[in-house]
Amino acid sequence: MAFAMHRFLASAIVLLATPSTASAADWAIAIHGGAGVIERADISAADDAAIRADLAKALDAGTAILKAGGSSTDAVVAAVAALEASPWFNAGVGAVFTSAGTIELDAAMMEGEGRRAGAVTGVKSTLSPIALARTLMDKGPHVFLAGPAADEYAREVGLSQVPNSHFMTERRRKQLNDLRMRNQGASLERPEVRMGTVGAVARDVKGTVAAGTSTGGLTGKSPGRVGDAPLVGAGTLADNRCGAISATGSGEIFIRTRVASQICDAARFGKVPLQKAADTTLAEVLALGGDGGVIVLGPSGDGLFSFNSAGMYRGRASAKGPREIKVYGDE
Ligand code: ASP
Fold first, then answer.
1. Could you give phi then psi for residue 173, rounded to 5 degrees?
2. How far apart are CA 81 and CA 227, in angstroms?
3. Is this model's pTM higher than 0.85 or not?
4. In angstroms, rounded to a whole number, what is the distance separating the alpha carbons of residues 142 and 145?
5. Is 3's pLDDT higher than 50?
6. Residues near ligand 1 with C-beta < 6 Å?
7. Residue of 202, 204, 201, 231 whose CA lies nearest to 215
8. Which of 214, 284, 296, 323 has the most beta carbons within 10 angstroms of its beta carbon?
9. For ligand 1, mutation pick of 90, 193, 228 (most atoms within 8 Å of CB)
């Protein structure tokens, strides 16, 4: 009798679960390549085309995985790794310089079913910080590793190592030199010192969301400075109960505003629509003197963007929606 009741309950639960699982099982992905003073007058037509092509490559890498039934984690890692490999963005190759003329990379990865996470800061020799964050998420035992210990962990698990100079580009070296000439430190009021952090959020056909963010931080930052990108709840968050979020902007203010947590909690506990939760949170960032943006993907629907800056490198695709790549605020 008890067994029969158990079977009845089990099938009732399956029946109840089926419709919502089916509607949540549409894949979707959104990516960003940083937000800031991105204006047509400052970007040549050739550069604009090259940036869009690299955004498209990253979006398509993630999309191919999701279309084939792959996991949101795999899709996020593929998209972010493609952006890390592009010299146009402030992550991996093309990352900004510290005040010491070195490159220190931060990244975080999180998946929303088990709320597993991996994060690294001050990475100097690991080719793909997002792959390192993902490996830490999968293998543990810790969630967050810093500095030489993070690179050492990467070596131990067999992730590719490169000299720090591998990440350096002339464009970013010039940005550091310009800053030094003006005798100014990294300043939150000057968004051009940090443009180009990259991130992705995705939902797979099982309905699991994932988020990943990777960055070089701020031009001229102090060695050892940690931004919002690798902090779960600030620049990166994934939780199937609210969605996945990846942020870019004035890191210190994003940390103080708890950007990703605030968006998630407003949606989860306050039942606020995600777009409104993101817009309200970015308005708070602005009120504290910060700028930037977020990409957000809920348990259903397409990826959303919210930014308080002139532009944000961004793209999205989904099972139902159009494939879009955008750069300027008025697109
Ligand atoms: N949020 C990043 C940081 O502060 C920089 C950026 O997104 O542009 O490290």
1. -65, -40
2. 19
3. yes
4. 7
5. no
6. 34, 90, 194-195, 197, 215, 217-218, 227-229, 235, 248-249, 251, 254, 292
7. 231
8. 214
9. 228
- Half-sphere exposure of 163 toward its Cβ, with a 13 Å CA cutoff? 3
Phi, psi of 98 (to 5 degrees): -80, 175
Residues 6+ apart with CB under 8 A from 134: 73, 77, 109, 118, 212
Please name which of 40, 47, 118 lies closest in space to residue 76, comparing C-alpha atoms.
118
Q: How confident is the model at residue 12 (pLDDT cuts 50, 70, 90)?
A: very low
Instruction: Indicate which residue of 121, 126, 135, 197 is catalytic.
Output: 197
Both tokens of 249, joined, read 């902007």
Whether residue 187 is predicted with pLDDT greater than 60 in this model: the reply is no
Torsions phi, psi for 94 (to 5 deg): 95, 10
Q: Cα–Cα distance between 310 and 189 in angstroms, integer? A: 14
Q: Name the burial class of residue 50, with classes exposed (0-12), middle (13-18) and buried (19+) by CB atoms within 10 angstroms of its CB.
A: middle
φ/ψ of residue 38, rounded to 5: -110, 105
Give percent of the chain with pLDDT exceeding 70. 89
279 neighbors 308 (Cβ within 8 angstroms): no
Q: Look at strands 292-297 and 311-318 and give their pairing.
A: unpaired
Specify which residues 263 forms β-bridges with. none
* Domains located in the chain, CATH noted: 2-92+108-114+195-328 (3.60.20.30)
Show the tokens assigned to 156. Answer: 């131990």
Spell out the residues 6+ positions from residue 216 whose beta carbon is closer than 8 angstroms to its own.
90, 91, 94, 95, 96, 97, 103, 104, 105, 106, 167, 172, 196, 197
- Angle separating helix axes 129-139 and 148-156, nearest 10 degrees: 70
> What is the distance between the alpha carbons of residues 129 and 140, in angstroms, rounded to a whole number?
15
Residue 274: how many CB atoms within 10 A of its CB? 23
Question: How many angstroms from the chain centroid is the CA of residue 128?
Answer: 14
- Distance in Å, CA 215 to ligand 1 centroid: 7
